[in-house]
Specification:
The complex is a heterodimer of chains A (277) and B (294). With 277 residues, chain A is an all-alpha fold. Chain A is built from 13 helices and 2 strands; from the N terminus they run αββαααααααααααα. A two-stranded antiparallel sheet of chain A has the order 1-2. Chain A is globular, with a radius of gyration of 23 Å. Chain B has 2 domains: 44 residues; 248 residues, MetI-like fold (Orthogonal Bundle), CATH 1.10.3720. Classes of the chains: A mainly alpha (277), B mainly alpha (294). At the A-B interface, α1, α3, α4, α5 and α6 of A face α1, α4, α5, α6 and α10 of B.
Chain lengths: 277, 294
Amino acid sequence: MNVKKFGNKLASLGIILAVLFPFGFLLMLSMGRRWVFPSLLPEVWTPDNWLAIWGMQSGLGASLALSLALSLGIASMATAGSFWVSKQVAYHRHRRRWLAMAYLPYVFAPVILAACLQYFFIRTGLSGKFWGVAIAQLFITFPYGLIFFTSFWTERMLSMEHLIATLGGNTWQAYARVLLPVARGALLTCFFQLFLISWFEYGLTTLIGVGKVQTLTLKVFQYINEANIFFAALASCLLALPPVVLLWLNKRYVFSIGFSGPSRSGKSGSKDQEILK
Amino acid sequence: MQKTSTYIGLGLFLALTAIPLLLGIGYALLFSLGLTGILSEGFTLEHWRAVLRSAAFWESIVFSAYVALVSIGMAVSLALFVVVRRPHTFEKGPLSFFIYLPLALPAIVMAFFIFQMMSKAGFLSRLAFQLGLTRSLGHFPDWVNGQYGIGIITAHFLMALPFFLILYTQMYRHEGMRALMQQAYTLGATRRQAAWRVAAPALFRRSFATVVLYLLFVMGSYEIPLLLGSQSRQMVSVLTIQKLQRFNLDDIPQAYTISVLYSMAVIVLALSSLPAYKWSGRKLFNRSRTVLKE
């Protein structure tokens, strides 16, 4: 029995080490210099690469700020917009047809979508601009948010809205006092996921931004092309850091505040009633 | 009578989903037929003929399908094997958090990592040299930028495996799999039979729409094959973008032709697989919730 337990613990440790290996490997490269074959580790170890993040030469700090601004903006806009629009779609009599349409941009390769739309971005002067990339990213994040939220709008939600109206509440009060608090967990989850879609995006950003909107994903590719593996590793670490933090926050807070999303079983009903009170 | 907010909502929906897609495909179709663009000389099917007769196009379709089927096939099989054999491995304890970490790696970072691991001057090559398995850099096999797409498959496999492990763990937990197994035992099934004849097929069937969507996602992937693929055998996205960005202007209509063909294939595959398996917004909602949960 003890041997089995020990074996399980050893296997768990092995999996954890395997999962952490890519992060450790990238961190090692980001702190190294001169990695000549056949050395297993870099010959020089230095924190200089990390210290150069905010230096003018690398431009990594600017890329980090740009990526954060872009992804936070996209996630906020797409979450808010898709939450509201999904309600109109969910209660529409042709709900299934609308939803089928929303799946198409979601399954489409973003880079091919960008290739097809490039002409329109050039004509409107949005090509190579921050706002052009933002609009293009909305085309892939908004449908995701819409599909995500459509199932939130159940019969129960509709009944709650009717109840608010019966009690004299207006639409604004329905959103502020009931719908948004009930959807808090779903809104946060969707926000995180849309942030990640935007944060990870490369092909569409390259084509619409024509290399001028230098997000971190573009920086990684630029450093790889320049054969600067140490800065590519550093940019990779910066790219992986926010998702790791979000995962931790997600585990720590989002689901601990209680997900009171749609439930037909009525498990979250008592919570909704409390909010209504 | 519909309310104004409904019209505004549906208008926004169309503006951000259907209209861009229709505009994009429409423009690509017109360009591929010679009806628009700086080189257009009127209606022609020449570019379509050129693409459909080109070996590179068919090779890229077959290669994309091969990469998607092998990488996702391996990831789904292994994830099913692990979850059916040990359903509680990723449910509790530190593994329930650590299994999410690989999802934090963007495709471009995963491609860079695989390149640094598997290329001729990469970590594995150095390790093989230190262990005396190879005598020089050149003796290490072409795992990256090679003909068989080993690097691309490895990268996609490593990205998909944690996703399917989490998916199947959550499905096993939330979709009555324990009760199903119990029923199988009651009917006289052995542990092995209950696992492989009941749980595994049931999990696979319930995840089929997700598997198809993931296959489409891998088939259309760009960053990973761009960095880890070879020049002679390209995946469909890479081929399209290379044709679009080449100096030869005759290649541009062909790039749009490939885009239209790819779009049609994706639309047909997605629409034919989604309703058949009752893929619904609710499933995505619940899945996203459960994938991020714990």
